[in-house]
Amino acid sequence: MLDCESQKSSGRKWTTPPFDPRFPNQNQTRNCYQNFLDYYRCLKAMDRRGKSPEPCQYYQHVFRSLCPKSWVQRWTEQIQDGTFAGKI
User: % helix / strand / coil in the chain, to the nearest 5?
Assistant: First the structure.
């Protein structure tokens, strides 16, 4: 997982996620959830191809910026337990 220390060492400066026209309203709950799903789908696809998960970091940055930590923790636990309702 990407954390603040690895952001500093990589020289990247993360900014606020850009506007996504799929989610034009102020409520960003669906945007949060969709980027969470996209991140795990990306990881799965990259692992299947034997490639680096580097391209997936964008989705991780967006969902970490938009989603409450409690949601991310709960969803991650559900993925690990095999009870997550989303299709990854």
Answer: 60, 0, 40
